Amino acid sequence: MTILEATFTVDLRPGQQLPAAGGRFDLSKTWTGQLEGTSTGVMLTAGDPASGDAGYIAMEQFHGVLDGRRGTLTLQQLGTMAGGDPTLEYVIAPGSGTEELAGVTGTLTIAGIDDDGTHHVTLDLA
């Protein structure tokens, strides 16, 4: 296994509403560190985050360089919050890599978020 570190900033914009989703957002991220590039995607939300009960799903396609290898990957997220207790599954979608990233799989963990919104992640590549 290989452990890498990266950061990202995210821009969320409300998107066209869809049935069965409380909200839809278009997202774009800028990645730095051992994952260097940009990603764009879609997030669907439901529930009431203010009450501590909510969930979201998101898919985003990353374009750039991962630990010196260039290509694209799709990142998949499933986040839930029950009673204010959050859980997050954040993975590289199997089979989504192209070019030098073909065959790459793994998980991402958010290690922290700075006051300015910068997210710190670790990537655990299989």
UniProtKB/TrEMBL annotation:
InterPro entries registered for this protein in UniProt: DUF3224, SO1590-like_sf
A Pfam family: DUF3224
Name of the protein this chain belongs to: DUF3224 domain-containing protein
